[in-house]
């Protein structure tokens, strides 16, 4: 009598969103069959639809709505797959994010921001090139309360960082590095939208740090900004309240640069006083520098 052995491929019941168990199941099936189409199609569908990705990797009974540890583990598994897998995630996530930014006619709700929390867990080498401009655009457009809430989600400790201080420093470094790269590429930093939005995001982190003291204030100094800042071009924007100026974000400037700003401000002040004196003399006559007492 012959025994008949049946190979059964058990897959999780298909769901519209993603979670770690589903990715494990689809990965096992793909490896067994040497066929990755099903996993590719699933990733394309979820990362290509905002509502689906926002419902993925959810975590109950937590400050952050996304299970960041589960999400990181899921991306680590996907990195073990053929390169097409991560390329699919990147291209569809980028398209979804671009669409969200382009079509925003009203302020973006915090509930639509889960996609950003998920992408921050993804270890793309070109993360800043692919996503940071759109991420900074979206975060800068939130109201102050939602901005603070989102960054509280983001700095909730997650492996390999075990404390809020470590997580905060890691997030701050991402935005600081993006500002530095944009400065290196931009010939006109005062009109670079991505650079401006990233600076506003660092301002959000500084606001939170003022309350919680996660890191030293010196961590907010940006070396590239301090090295490349053209004060004579930047300061007039600050003084006239026209356009973007790094002088509006003094926490990014080191003491030496702040001293230079004060020197430029004193020159501007003297010029202003001279102009006032000139016009007074022109229209009112020259005032005597002496005190005259009549008895």
Automatic annotation (TrEMBL):
Which named protein is this? Putative E3 ubiquitin-protein ligase HTD2
Its taxonomic path starts at:
Eukaryota, Fungi, Fungi incertae sedis, Mucoromycota, Mucoromycotina
The species this protein was found in = Rhizopus stolonifer (Rhizopus nigricans)
């Amino acid at each position: 009598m012959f025994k008949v052995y049946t190979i059964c491929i058990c897959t999780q019941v298909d769901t519209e969103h993603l979670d770690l168990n589903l990715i494990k199941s689809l990965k096992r099936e793909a490896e067994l069959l040497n066929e990755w189409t099903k996993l590719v199609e699933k990733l394309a569908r979820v990362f290509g639809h905002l509502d689906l990705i926002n419902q993925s990797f959810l975590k109950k009974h937590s400050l952050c709505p996304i299970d960041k540890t589960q999400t990181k583990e899921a991306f680590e598994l996907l990195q073990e797959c053929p390169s097409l897998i991560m390329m699919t995630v990147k291209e569809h996530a980028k398209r979804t994010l671009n669409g969200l930014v382009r079509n925003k006619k009203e302020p973006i709700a915090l509930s639509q921001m889960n996609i950003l929390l998920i992408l921050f867990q993804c270890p793309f080498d070109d993360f800043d090139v692919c996503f940071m401009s759109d991420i900074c655009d979206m975060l800068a457009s939130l109201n102050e309360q939602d901005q603070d809430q989102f960054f509280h989600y983001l700095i909730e400790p997650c492996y390999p960082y075990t404390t809020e201080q470590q997580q905060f420093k890691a997030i701050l470094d991402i935005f600081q590095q993006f500002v530095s790269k944009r400065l290196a590429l931009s010939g006109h930093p005062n009109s670079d939208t991505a650079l401006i939005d990233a600076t506003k995001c660092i301002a959000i982190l500084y606001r939170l740090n003022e309350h919680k003291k996660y890191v030293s204030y010196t961590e907010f100094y940006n070396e590239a900004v301090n090295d490349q800042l053209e004060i004579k071009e930047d300061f007039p924007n600050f003084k006239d309240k026209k356009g973007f100026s790094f002088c509006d974000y003094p926490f990014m400037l080191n003491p030496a640069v702040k001293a230079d700003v004060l020197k430029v401000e004193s020159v501007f002040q003297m010029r202003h006083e001279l102009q006032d004196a000139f016009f007074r003399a022109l229209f009112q006559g020259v005032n005597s520098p002496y005190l005259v007492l009549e008895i």
